Amino acid sequence: MPISRLYKLYLSPQRKYVKVLKNLLGFVPGNLSLYRLAFRHKSVAQNIKKGVKNSNERLEFLGDAVLGSVVAEVLFKLYPYEDEGFLTELRSKIVNRANLNQLARKLGFEKLIEYDSRIMGQSRQGSLLGDAFEALIGAVYLDKGYEFTRSFLINHIIKSHIDIHTLEQTETNFKSKLIEWCQRHGKDISFELIGNDDGESIKLFTVQANIDGESMGLGKEFSKKNAEKLAAEKACETLGI
Fold it and tell me: 64 catalytic, yes or no?
């Protein structure tokens, strides 16, 4: 083992944290500040620039893209005769917040996440773990590079903790679930196609799920149908259903 890793594990002032991460991830991290940031929710973050906080949100954005790319590759190879719609739906089942929350809880993330419990009541903690999971993937990517992160996700996460074939048989129709909930509670629901942010592909559809005129979830995909599914999923997370 390189001297730098030995130092971090046994001599560094942060050796306890390093050992916790090693037990969690299976490797000794390089840039510890990235991993601490990955577990820092915006409720305890500090302003570092006007409108920007040192929270895990930017790492979450990056990790979401890396995770989606690796999962897409795994599914593409695992199901050589399935169409784009099947692959997109199965990828959504794997990377949706409910599944990522469960995975992060199983891995023991609850002990590491920094957040303000006074601000984040029980009802508002729905995506806390899943967000941190994606942020962690972003941290690993910046620390170790894409190939290392890809190998880590496939061998340490997907093969060890995700039963893809079981998820394939699981019905996760968030749009129907959301519509049924709105009908039961007398709420108006609409899916609104909105403009993309500057710099985003014009081929990308952005759909907003509105409940009684209030935005509850946003979905972005390369088909309007799949964007609506993602928006419905986000709305279900927001509403806790």
Answer: yes
